[in-house]
Amino acid sequence: MTAVDWAPGTDWWELVVARAEATPDARMLIDEHDRTMTFGEYRRRAEEVAAGLAALGMSRGQMVSWQLPTCLESAVLMAALGRLGVVQNPIIPMLRTAEINVIIGQLHSDWYVAPDVWRNFDYAAMAHAAAAEFGCRVLQVTPGELASLPRGDIAALAPYEPSSDVRWIYYTSGTTALPKGIRHTDASALSVSNVAVDAWKIEFGDVFPIAIPVTHVGGIMLIAGQLRLGFVLGLFEGFDPVHTPAAMARMGATHLGSAVPFFIAYLAAQRANPDERLFPKLKVCIAGGAPLPPELHEQVKAELGGGGIINAYGLTECPSPCSVRATDPEIAFQGSVGRPIHGVEVRVAADGELRFRGPQLFLGYVDAALDADAFDSDGFFRTGDLGEVDEHGYVHITGRIKDIIIRNAENISAVEVENVLHEHRSIQDVAVVGVPDPKTGEHAVAVIVLAPGAAPLTLQEIGEHCTARGLARQKTPEQLDFVDVLPRNSMGKILKHELRARLVG
């Protein structure tokens, strides 16, 4: 009853059916408005929506771009599109006209599904402008209103046909440039859920509230994971640091995610009421998408309870190839991103670049011209991240090839400096970037968010702190910049190109 067998030959819709048949009355989804859905209801509503979409002219093999927040409507649409056998292109809600035109134009999308107005942005106008330029059909869906999804007669649906073709196209987060299209089959997309099965100590009936975009590749990871394991997903359209932690607590959260701003908010909510556990059922927290300050795991473990923060690692091209396991010894939680997940191989190239090969590896980019530089001669994906594997087999991320500051011809890892600065009690959040310097080539700038009530730091104080922690003098930041918040994408990754542009400009 607790788990549904899944083999690489099983596709997305077949997994939906298998779970619905195994535990039809078990709770699957709950949203921030307290709407709920069981696994059986999920399958039936998805089939009804598939029939409604088919009646509108949507059919197998068409390209369907859809841009909705994390809500019941998104989850149902994802399954309905799987039932129809279309190629679905989930788009994170924060993207706007520049990115949408690239995506719709590159994919020649047949359909674009979007809200009317959501969070005070007129998606309908953007969708109809795209339709006028690229010829796609537009379907408006209202988050919070299941009735806005078309419904039809299930009996009118054509028989389901499995496929090993590309079924998912995701676009990268775009932290440095316009996003790139990434092609996945059901087999590769569903293999992402191996990390939940192997590493995260999630059991039947557990509750995992999420406020990340379900249209991110992490969305299919979590929904496929819950279909395999039978846990409950709590769906939040966005994250409010004041109100969302309490709402997640009311759901009875056993697991929490997923990036530094979220954990800071959970801790703040707990500290506001220190005499009562906010999350009494918490087993473990799960992080991914961005590096974590080393001390955050200890703070979460001590103050929120549970096993602290499991750190995972991945990219849209190769999602979650490694993760700390909930059962790992404490040494794994100290700065590593764990060991490779079952079936994944890791390689460290001569230049220190991490490379992965495994069942969740994408087929290639939409722009095939990019593929030659993406893979090495043995088919390993070149991540662009620098790292190492320690004597225990744990992978450590030490920086990005493009996130190296070159000062006087010496390489400085921004991540290394950030980890040291995160230990300062007056610093809540920090990013280190390189800017041009006529004497040294580049110098390091620490962009700092101060802890509540902390006074601005001086370069001397930063230098003394870095020296006390053994950081080489040439790696110490030579410029400070104080901000209220660091710019991040929807998965918590810091948008360093925005910081550089502001500093240089």
TrEMBL record:
The keyword Ligase applies. Gene3D superfamilies: 3.30.300.30, N-terminal domain of ligase-like. It comes from freshwater metagenome. Residues 416-493 form the AMP-binding enzyme C-terminal domain. Residues 18-365 form the AMP-dependent synthetase/ligase domain. Belongs to the ATP-dependent AMP-binding enzyme family. One of its GO terms (biological process) is fatty acid metabolic process. This is Unannotated protein. The keyword Cytoplasm does not apply. SUPFAM superfamilies: Acetyl-CoA synthetase-like. Keywords: Ligase. GO terms for molecular function: medium-chain fatty acid-CoA ligase activity.
